[in-house]
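Weekly sync notes, structure subgroup
Attendees: PM, AL, DS (notes)

Item 1: joint prediction request from the bench team. They want all two components modeled as one assembly rather than separately. Inputs as received:
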Amino acid sequence: MIATSHPPRRARDLRLDFFRGLALWFIFIDHVPDNAVSWITVRNYGFSDATEIFVFISGFAAMIAYAGVLDRQGWLMAAMRVLRRVWQLYVAHIMLFVAFTAQIAWISLRTNRQMFIEQMNLLGLVQEPTRAVLETALLRFRPANLDVLPLYIVVLASFALTLPALRRAPWLTLAGSALVYFVARRFGWNLAAFPEGKTWYFDPFMWQLAFYLGAAFAADGRVGERLRPYAKLLAPTAVVTLLIAGFIALSWEFNALGHMVPDWLGRLIYPIDKTTLDPLRLLHFLALAYLAQLLIRPDATFLRWPLASPLRRCGEHSLLVFCIGTFLSFSAHIALDAWGPTLTAQLLVSALGIGVLIAVAYIADWYKKKQAAA
Amino acid sequence: MSHRRGTDLRSTFVALALTSACAVFPAMAKERCGYLPGQLRLGAELPKARAAMNARKALEVVALGSSSTQGYGATSPFHSYPAELLRVLQESYPSIKVTVYNRGIGGQDVTQMLERLERDVFAEHPDLVVWQLGTNAALRSQNVAQFHRLLAGGIARMHAKGIEIVLMTPQYAPAFNALENEEDYLAAMREVAQETNVALFPRYEIMKFWFENERLPYARFINRDGLHLNDFGYTCIGRLLGEAIKRAIPR
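Output from the run, pasted for the record:
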């Protein structure tokens, strides 16, 4: 358990980029309100959604990215690298805030209506502009749908401190993370937000566990192998978990199924809160992740198919794609509001949005390779 | 589940700043909010609200409640039911200065709400209180007789201050419907409303009508947590409540 002699793998695990790209596409699609295309995303078939995938993979990727620096250059340099990344995320968040808010301001001025400002949670900016600027810089004020990056920022900042512990004793560190999760749930800890009285949509004290699960698994580097002897037990358990969660999730969409969920089960599972990362969400995600790694090997050929490459490219440039996707989800919102939310319009804005995300990812990739070659 | 108290719950939706914004709601206007005709009859008139509107050209409403008043599960406070209630009342009474104070705090029920009556309700000197409760009492299996007694006591305290009341029943949601005795709390609220001659807004029955008669799936009006309303649910409840209150205010 202590002092792993297996350094995390150096070769890029294509599955990470593939699934992170998929999560980013899902986040974009799900952020467009009343979008029928959401039916292809994971959230309709269980408790967890793309957020868990994104945060878990972020933890996994962070461990892979910084463990090498830690080994070669020590904690101080590794921590500096992590903090440099935290700074990049912060800048990206502020840029996204400005662009996103500007878009809302544009439509509000154009239509001479304040509705979008209120709908997107920006009333604080109108009522207390001076305070709102300060609170924005402190990550406490943000429009709807801009909640993931602030979570990522604070959790990654904590990672600068916990990196050596994760490297030496990943499971002990994960136990600490789980302890924080349970204590925070018990006492209802959360960070304050603005306007007064609001708290963070993704409670960092609870959502950090999804990140540290990823980081600890990456630090151990052999979780898949360790679990292999128990596959006969774990695989069916995971399948049953997914089936039950899928049934419950579909019971919210189809009344016939809604009547079939027994009361005792309802009393057991509800409510399934997102802010506090309900254990059922985590359980559902772990079942999903377990089966995914069981079925898809790191060298699976389909990951190299041309069709998979747009997803992988998006996953490789996740920060950029995330920011553009969040911005575009509101553009799609405006478009659907103007044209009416017909199925054709929903398909069109979703396809256009994904198209832009792919284009952006390929341009970023092209530029990066050109620069590296020069 | 733990929702911390907060003051934006107490944020006030003051008429002036928002009036211009409330003129048109294309995205929402087309949403149909179903109900049975009788469900908008509150069972008691609201003459004091009328008197306040006549005398002061103003109507002050406090929305007292838990997370469903706060608007937990909505994408923004814009979609909470008190915000929608304010829009309906403003549109209907353009010459009256309507104010709706949101005093919802997640996780609370009658016991905690009674503790803050003075600070959160009486301090505002409202003409009307919409009191949403019962869900958390049922989720925590509060003794029904005690629930009944505390509710009646709260109503008596508000009546002593000359405040009119509309009670709002729990939501029709998977988490509430799965309880063993959720009907008991609904029955207690109906009984208290009758005994004290207080208006009752049957949120539970309206939402049940959506589910059973209009065959709307839960996902249409309930958040994915299985307990709270979503934007559509809150907006419709706010709008129907506004309609019901208008009908109960004598001309």
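Discussion: The CA atoms of residues 52 and 59 of chain B lie 6 Å apart.
Action: AL to compare against the crosslinking data before next sync.
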